Amino acid sequence: MARTSTHNASLKPDLLDADRVPLPMLEAGMVLTWSSGFVGMRFSADYAPVLLVLLWRFITLSVCLFPFVAREIRSAPWPVLIRQSIIGVFATAGYLAGVARGIELGVPTGLAALIADLLPLGVVVISTCVFREHSPRSVWAGLALGLAGMLIVCRDAVALGTAPAWAYALPVAGMISLAAATVWQQRSTAHAGSLSPPGMLWLQSAVSCPIFLWLQAAHGNVMPIATVGFAASVAWTAILATLGGWGLYWACLRRSSSARVTSVLFLSPPITLIWAWAMFGEPLSWPMAIGTGISGLGVLLVVRPDRARGRQAV
């Protein structure tokens, strides 16, 4: 039997029919573009406050995406819109505000990225402790390997920094916020419907605008900066990190389990370091390659139960 989409078939179809693309290809694209977000944050810091870039990133997306999703949004039931808006607040505003504000207060970017990349553990812990879902031993073993590989990769990029002690809780809170939104999205979609990834991105951008407007207004000017660097920062984070990373994240989540999708993000740190090498000339090393291989083995262990369930469902 052909696979059907979990969202309402009467709504406007995706800009990209992700169901026709093999899942591993979607996951590869997700890791590549998701990793660009941390590099984009570093690139943006040279031209404008991080919160100002985030504000105009979501304003730009809200304006540009609306013509493509207006019909879907108008047709969607109010309960779906309300639920997706709350998920968007946790997934986008909660996650990015926690990570960005922590970095702004002095938490080193490498450490903030490492905490954010603990997302797979956060998802499985919430699913297990809150919803009593059972995860096979292979999943836990895969998560342990993925974490070990990630720590090896990030060994030279992590430092404690000089931020106040409470600031280190902000990236943790951001990671937990996204983990909770991920579990909620996966559990609710099958039973109550959802929006297409472009529709979700527009709604998440729209609800994030007032949050980042408030956060940036408390610290400075909210008007855009008329420089090429600022425009490039907004374009980079909007197109690669949001349309690419977040769009593919939600598309993958509709096709597979949250444990599998988030575990693939264990490969994000080495890809981020490759981005940094290409853009900023930062060195690569053999420990990074070894850590990447260990994380890859961990991802395979998490992916295996999904493949087994897929074969049983055929």
Count the beta strands.
Answer: 0
Poorly predicted regions are 1-16, 310-314
- What overall form do the CA principal axes indicate? globular
How many strands, which pairing sense, and closed or not: the largest β-sheet? Answer: none
Q: What is the count of structural domains?
A: 1
β-strand amount? under 5%
Task: Describe the protein's architecture and organization.
InterPro entries: AA-Vitamin_Transporters, EamA_dom, EmrE-like. Its main location: membrane. It is found in: Membrane. With 314 residues, the chain is mainly α. The chain has one domain. It contains 12 helices and no strands. α2 packs across α9 (228-255). The longest helix is centred in the C-terminal third of the chain and has 28 residues, at 228-255. It is globular.
Strands, helices and their partners?
Layout: H1 23-45, H2 50-75, H3 78-104, H4 109-116, H5 119-129, H6 137-153, H7 169-192, H8 197-217, H9 228-255, H10 258-264, H11 268-280, H12 286-313
